[in-house]
Predict the 3D structure of the following.
Amino acid sequence: MKIAFVGLGQMGSAMAGNLIRAGHELTVYNRTPAKAQGLAAMGAVVASSPAEAARGCDAAITMLSDDDSVQEAVLGAGGIAEGLPASGLHIGSSTISTALARRLKGEHLKRGQRYVSAPVFGRPEAAEAKKLLVVPAGSPEDVEACRTIFESIGRQTFVAGTEPWQANALKLCGNFMIVSVIESFGEANATMRKAGVSPELFLEVMNALFASAVYANYGRIIATENFEPAGFALRLGLKDVRLVLQVAEECLSPMPIASLVRDHFLEAMALGYAESDWSRLSAIPARNSGL
């Protein structure tokens, strides 16, 4: 397929590289052009705007940090919506609000274009290894049209529903589950440290108990306090927990733990941890326990 890829951070660059390796024809765009150099060396064409990247493509993928950056790249001047052909597909892999997902579907429909939300689960190393979990939602025909793309970037695909925003709701709740693990592990780790139990031993026991990659990966970061460089910045974790609380309000579904975690994120931001890995949230229960 001929694909435009917009957003070449750690996740986007890894995903785009796997698409090239799978034989897709890629045109890429990033606000910082230097980030496209590696992909250009692999055969990607570098565009000067999202519209130029999307022109003549079968599909355009966005992997950007938040609602504002997605709106600008898609609906702003020189955005994807201007360049994507009629019947072209926009695949939104960014972690965005359900409200924006609904707006994107409507705006693309006005132009005769199609929209599928397809956020992913996995850190940059999983993206590089093509081990992401892909969670699309949209019309069955549109999701099926994207199947080869999903197979090129991930190890498994789970269809969340027929409305794109449902995939974003699933992604946000999934990220809430991950950050709940970080919060609970941070609280337990602080207690173990005060009890004189080795953090490494506690991690080993928890890995044997849960056999979870989430516990293994984030537990290791927390136990070793190795929060730099960030695989996922703490400030983006705050953004996601705010968005999941919006979903909860839309659905009239209380999420009190999410409210607690949001407040701990705010504490961590106030301490200057915005660009640390979001697992540095564990510093808050450690600090509260006097460590």
The first strand starts at residue 2 and ends at 6. The mean pLDDT is 97. Strands lie at 2-6, 25-29, 45-46, 59-62, 89-92, 114-117, 120-121, 132-134, 154-157. The chain is about 55% helix and 10% strand.
